[in-house]
Amino acid sequence: MKVLITGGAGFIGQYLGRRLTRSGHRVVAMDLLVEQVHADPEASVRRFPGPVVQADVTDVDAWAALDRPDAVVHLAAETGTGQSMYQADRYRHVNVGGTHTAGLAAQAWGVPLVAMSSRAVYGNGATSCTQHGPRFAKRCCDAAVPTASKESDPHHPVSVYGETKSEGETVLLEPARQIPVTIIRPQNVVGPGQALHNPYTGVLAAFLARLREDKSLLVYGDGSATRDFVHVDDVAALVAWCVEHAPPVGEPRVLNCGTGVRITLDDVAEAAISGSPRSDVQVEHVDVQRAGDIEHASADLARLRQVGTPLPQWSGHEAIADFIRASWTAPGATSAAWETALDELSRRGLTT
């Protein structure tokens, strides 16, 4: 097949492009190559195993100029949770408008679409309580414990980013009546090749910067919040499988993407340390809450097993350590970039 990948020159797109190429497919990327994501746009283009068309996914004319592919994978998105809280219009334009445009293009071509959503649609996710039963979004009482999010759970996003991903899923319902549509909700994706200069896309690049500068690691909160980190290679394997196994027309398929195992932020810090050459690292807890932050997250993988997709091969701990080891000598921003990003949120009243 010829597969068009929006955002294909980015982190996940590079892994997916190589995997599809190894399987005998041809790939084409559509990517705007924005500076916040691509520190070296020309290097991003060289790494992608196929042609790269520099274009905006929200531009209808840009889509019309493309040759018809056999499938579309829509990865292009604005991804910074904190940044989304003060650049809401930009995030909606790309994440909702761009997804809508991608869906209409795939519909016009009559080809399957695989679209990347996010675990952010679940917000704080699900909890279970022996007294009150299952709850979503908010804990009912201190006895409630977090449970893994299922694809059938209601959406309760707590950030503009999460809202745009939820709305992006909604705009694909109409194309799904005429073409096969798969929606994937990844948890925290990590791996070699991740942007090291973008302070809006997660904690691990910040940990890497501080480790390389012989500084302590800063964990926001008391360290008990949990996440589900999934290796980018496992994400690419799932997306590639979905490209090759389209669902029936009129039956859009939604799939979680994660390891199914939650780890605390303190565990994340220890896994990062284990992947570094350092051993004398202090972990400090910072009493700060950023707008859009969530307390707990993990994916229920029952539907993946039911459908028969590839399951993750890396644990969250392994994925984090692999990222740190592989990225140790790669160029990236200093820890000051994350301090500046936090200051920006504070000035806008988006921290407590």
Describe the overall structure.
This protein is α/β, with parallel strands linked by helices and 352 residues long. It has one domain (2-287, 295-347): NAD(P)-binding Rossmann-like Domain (Rossmann fold, 3-Layer(aba) Sandwich). It is built from twelve helices and 16 strands. Helix 1 (11-22) crosses helix 8 (232-244).
Entry keywords:
single chain; 352 residues; alpha/beta; Rossmann fold; seven-stranded parallel beta sheet; three-stranded antiparallel beta sheet
Brief overview, please?
The strands form 5 sheets. The protein has a 7-stranded parallel β-sheet with strand order 3-2-1-4-5-9-14, sandwiched between helices. With 352 residues, it is an alpha/beta fold. It is built from 12 helices and 16 strands.
**Tell me about the biggest sheet?**
7 strands, parallel
The CATH topology is given as: Rossmann fold
CATH class: Alpha Beta
Helix residue percentage: 25-40%
Number of helices, counting only DSSP H or I runs of 4 residues or more: 12
Count of the separate structural domains: 1
| Radius of gyration over C-alpha positions, nearest whole angstrom | 19 Å
- What is the mean pLDDT? 96
User: Strands across the major sheet, in which order?
Assistant: 3-2-1-4-5-9-14
Shape: globular
Extract low-pLDDT stretches: none
The total strand number stands at: 16
